[in-house]
Write a structure and sequence with these properties.
single chain, mainly beta, 11-stranded antiparallel β-sheet, 13 strands, 9% helix, disordered N terminus
Length: 206
């Protein structure tokens, strides 16, 4: 029993300094997102003929939380919310309504973008709603951070988020080794967010 207690105490003594150096950071950021839609084949509807879905640029904010190891490596999660507007364009144009875009990502990792529902009026005057799809996306960003003291600082930077929307058949490709296969044109909606805000640090024995 005494030997086991000594072993446990030794392991705790070794682990405590490393754990004490682990820090946690939380940030709240605000900014502006430059958004773009996707273009495809023309579609004929009772409201007109359209070949592009437009997303308006607008204000945005996000919240993040990360774990920072003693060597400076950081792993975390970021949630972003953008105020946008949905419209159709092409041979005709039609404004559909406001839409919120939310994304969920690990730091420089994989995640998802949620295009919120849009309420609009049909050509016959009846109200309707377009359900908000969730699409695969990834994000990458860079910026600067300045600490005013051990627990409070400022951040500024840019985040780029491409979101996969759909793919359209583009034609056939043939080669002697692989044979012939159908090639698709992948459609992405891109968002560039400029942001700035506050960050808070705690833990790490501070």
């Amino acid at each position: 029993m005494i030997r086991r207690a000594l072993v446990v105490a030794s392991l705790m003594a070794l682990a405590t300094p490393a754990y004490a150096q682990v820090r946690f950071e939380a940030s709240i950021m605000g900014g502006y997102t430059f958004a773009e839609g996707v273009e495809g084949d023309a579609v004929i509807t009772p409201s007109g003929t359209f070949n592009k879905i437009e997303l308006k640029s607008g204000g945005a904010f996000n919240l993040s939380f990360g774990v920072v190891a003693h060597n400076g490596a950081e792993v975390g999660f970021i949630w972003s919310h953008q105020m946008s507007h949905l419209s159709l364009s092409g041979f005709d144009t039609k404004d559909l309504g406001s839409m919120n875009i939310e994304s969920y990502h690990g730091y420089i990792g994989f995640g998802a973008t949620d295009y919120g529902p849009v309420d609009f009026t049909k050509a016959n005057g009846q109200p309707a709603t377009i359900a908000g799809p969730v699409r695969y996306s990834t994000t990458v960003g860079f910026g600067v951070k300045y600490w005013a003291n051990n627990h409070f600082g400022f951040r500024a930077g840019m985040i780029y988020t491409p979101t996969y929307i759909t793919a359209e058949a583009e034609g056939w490709w043939c080669d002697p080794y692989w044979g012939c296969y159908l090639v698709g044109d992948h459609k992405y909606s891109n968002q560039f967010q400029l942001q700035g805000g506050f960050t808070f640090r705690f833990g790490g024995g501070q």
